[in-house]
Amino acid sequence: MWKYLLPLIVALPAQAHVVMDAAELPAATYQRIAFRVGHGCAGAATTGIEIRLPEGVVQARPMVKPGWTIAITTRALERPTSTGHGLTREAPATITWQGGPLPDAHYDEFVLMIRTPDAPGASLAFPVVQLCEGGARHDWVEPAGSRSPAPILRIGNRP
C-alpha cells in the first residue's frame, strides 16, 4: 500500500514554516498579527526575521522581544495618507528582528500591530526572510502553493 501512497505524499507541497496567525482581518482597522517561526534553517538556530510589508500597509509597529533588536526601514508615499490618527508621508517597508537565537527545536512569534488597508477583498503577501546561524537563510517569499510561500492576509469588510 505504501508504494501507492508515497508518490502522493512526496508530491504534496511543503507547509509554510513561517505562518501568520490571522487568515483574514477587517479593512481599515488596527489589528495584531503574529508571524510564527516553526523551526530554524536545516537545524541552525534562527537569528533574524525580516518582514517585508505590502504596499497597502501604511502603519505597522513591532512588539518588543527581549533579546532581539528591531530595525524599521520606510518608503516614501506618493501622497499623504491617513492612518486614522493623522496623515503620514511615509510607510514602513521592512521590520527586522535580530538576536535570539531561537533554537531549531523551538518556535516563537514575532508580533506587529498594523492598520489594515481599506481594501475589502484584497489579499496581501508578507514576504519573510529567516536568517540563521552560520549564514543559513530561508526566504518565505513565493506564491501560495509553492514550497516556500509568503504568509497571506485577506482583507475583509469593514466592521
UniProtKB/TrEMBL annotation:
UniProt cross-references to InterPro entries, sorted A to Z: YcnI-copper_dom (IPR012533), YcnI-like_sf (IPR038507)
Xref: Gene3D superfamilies: Uncharacterised protein YcnI-like PF07987, DUF1775 (2.60.40.2230)
Organismal lineage: Bacteria, Pseudomonadati, Pseudomonadota, Alphaproteobacteria, Acetobacterales
Keyword Signal appears in the UniProt entry: yes
Source species: Rhodovarius crocodyli
A Pfam family this chain is assigned to: DUF1775
Identification of the protein by name: DUF1775 domain-containing protein
Annotated ranges, domain YncI copper-binding: 17-155
Signal sequence, start to end: 1-16
Keywords from the named record: Signal
